[in-house]
Amino acid sequence: MNLESPRVTTQKSQQEMFDFLTNVENYKQVMPESMEKFEVIAADTFLFTLKGMPQIALKITETREPELVVLGSTSEKFNFSLNILVEPEGENKSAVQLLFDGEFNAMMSMMVKGPLTKFITNLSENMGKL
Predict the structure, then answer these.
(1) Which stretches within the chain are classed as H helix?
(2) Which uninterrupted H or E stretch holds 8?
């Protein structure tokens, strides 16, 4: 299953946004309001819980400075990646888009598509408010 967030413009340069996204503590600032728990586990790993959803742990699995940060699930049951693309958008601005890629059976895909789409849209919108 592949999902895309809307592309949003931030008030941070491409490098500033990349630096922000490679510090896992900063993800707390862009989580949806429905976040019930957020915890940094390691320098490259954090976990969170949203209301009505299971706990999810994400790890920075790849970076390509200053344009890409890839977050991967640490769960084998719920295997997915979230690519965050950061493009320059003039001086002191950048554009961010999230691309979700997960391998789920048809039943699971139907159940998670709506909440996941809302989640990545919320993340991108909150990044645009930074």
Answers:
(1) 14-21, 106-128
(2) strand 8-10
CATH number at residue 6: 3.30.530.20
| Cβ-contact 88, 52 below 8 angstroms | no
> Which positions of the chain have pLDDT values less than 50?
none
Domain that holds residue 71: 2-128
Give the Cα separation of 62 and 53 in Å (integer). 25
Amino acid letter for position 32: P
- Both tokens of residue 90? 């003039």
Return d(Cα 70, Cα 59) in angstroms, integer.
8
The per-residue pLDDT for 117 is 94
Torsion (CA) 72, 75, 80, 83 in degrees, nearest 10: -10
DSSP H or E stretch at residue 16 = helix 14-21
Strand 45-50 with 2-4, pairing: unpaired
Domain count across the chain: 1
- Look at strands 45-50 and 68-73 and give their pairing: unpaired
Residue 15 has which token pair? 């490098």
